[in-house]
User: What shape does this take?
Amino acid sequence: MKQIDQPPEMLSGGQILVRSLQAQGVDRVFGVPGESYLAVLDALCDAPDIQMITCRQEGGAAMMAEADGRLAGKPGVCFVTRGPGATNASAGIHVAYQASTPMVLFIGQVARAQQDREAFQEIDYRRMFGQMAKWVAQVESPARLAEYVDRAFAVAMSGRPGPVVIALPEDMLRESCAFHPNQKTSALPAAAPAPHDLSALERLLQQSERPLLLCGESGWSDEARRLAETFCEKHAVPAVAAFRCQDRFDNTHPAYIGDCGLGINPSLQRHIEGADLVLVMGARLSEIVTQNYTILVDPGAQKLVHVHPSPDELVTVRQPDVAMACAIEPLAEALADIPANPERLEGRRARLQKARAEYEAWSTPAAIPGDLQYGEIVDYLREQLPADAIICNGAGNYSIWVHRYFRYRADQAQLAPISGSMGYGLPAAIAAKLRYPDRDVLCFAGDGCLQMTVQELATARQYGANIIVLVINNGSYGTIRTHQERNYPGRVMATDLVNPDFTALAAAYGFHSTKITCTEEFYPAFEAARAASQPALLELYLPLEALTPSVTLSQLQSNN
Assistant: This one.
C-alpha cells in the first residue's frame, strides 16, 4: 500500500526556533524576558528539555552564556530583548569575542514594518555588533529560521570560535509557516597539520637548545592537554600559559613554568625572551601575551611556530617561521610522536628545572600588610580544593593573587575574562555550578567588581547554584588607584568606594554570609560555607595598603 505523506506542521517562528535549538542539543539558555520575543518564551513552555535561566540584567545573562559555552565546548545561548537589553548584553559579547568562546545571542527586534524609522528601541545590530561578533544577521522569514540557527552554531564553532548575533523581528516570530525538520548539524571537520609543516617543526625542534611551548585559549581538549604534557616531558620543553589560560596545562606538572599575563614573573619573561624556538598552540599574540608587543614579535629574536584553528590569527602580529591553520589535538598527537634528541636533553632539563624552581618561588605567598594574608588564603584553597574545582573571577588587582598563587590542575577549571571585564566572576560561577553541580565553584570578586553584576546573587539563589563568593573589600577601584599613584602622584580621583554591607546584602538574597578580618577567621568560615546547603558569600577585608602581592601603596607614594 502506498504510504500517504503527512503534511508538514504549521509552526510559528518562535516554535521553529525552539525546535532548531533542540536539534542542536541545547539544554539551557540564559536571558532576561522581553516583549519582543514573547513567541519564543511561549514555545519554551513546550520544551521541557531546555531550561530557561531568568537573569537580573542582560550583561550577567550574556556572561553566563559565555561561561557555559566555554565549559560545554559548544555555543552558549542567550536571549535578550531589543535596545537596552541588547546594549546591556554587549558586555558579554565582548568577553566571548576576546576569549574565543562559542556563543549565540538572540535579540528580539522591532516588527519588520516598523524598521528604519527609529521605532521604539530600534537598533541596527549589524552595525552595533559588527566588530565584536563573528557574524551578525537578521531573520526576515520564519521559513529560514532553521537555516540561520544551523549556520549560527557552525560559525560560532568554526576556526577561531566566537559569538554570533541573530536579530529576530517580533512579528516574524509570531508568523507561521510549514516546518520541515532538518537533521542536527554534523560536526565541523577539523583540519590536520600538513606533513611538510610537521617536518619543518621537527627540524626546528631538533636544532633548538631553548624551546618553549605557549598554550592559549583556542582548540584545546583533555586529550590535547595530555599529549602536550607528554611532549614536554619527552623533550624537556617548558610550558607557559597565555593570559588567563592557566588550566590549559597542569600547573603541578614539572614542565609548567607560569603564565604570560599581567604582572608577569620577571624571570619567566627572561625565559621567553631567551627561547630560541617558541611553539604557540591556540594562543593569540595579544597585547598582554606579548607584554605590550615587546616580546615574541621580533622575527630576528627567535623562531616561531604558530598553530591556531584560524589562519587569520597566524599573521596578525608577525609572520611565523612555520604557520599551521589546524586543530590543536592532531598537532599534539604529532608532537608526542617526535623522537627526542638526546644531544639536547641534558641542557634543556637543566634550564627547565631552573625555570620550574623560579615559578615555585614566585607562586609561594609572601607576607603583605595587614591581618588578612590573602596569599596564604589562596594557598590554603589550592591545597584544600579538589583538582576539578572551578575558579572564577572578574577583573581587578584582587585577581593577581589568584592567578599567581593558585595552581590549576584540571582542564576547564579557570573562568576569567581575557577581555579584562569587571563583573564576570559571579555570572561565570553561576553558569559553572549549573553545568557542573557536583564540582566546587568559587567566585573571587573585588568590591568594585562584584557590584557590576551583584544582582545575579538572586539568580544563584533562585536556581540552587550553591557557589561560594569571596569578596575582597579594600574600598577602592584598586587597579585604577594603582595607575593613578604611578602616573599622577598625589592626584587621587574617583577611585574611592563607599560600599554596602556585603554580608547583609548577601543574607537578604538568601546566602550564607560571614565577615572575615584576619587570616585565622577564614579557615572555619570557608568550611562552614562549603557545608552550607545554600550559596555563600565571605567578605574579606583587605587594606588598601596591600595594592598587589608585590607593591604597597606606601611604596608607590614614596617612589614619587
User: Anything to note?
Assistant: The chain has 21 helices and 20 strands. The two ends are 93 Å apart (CA to CA).
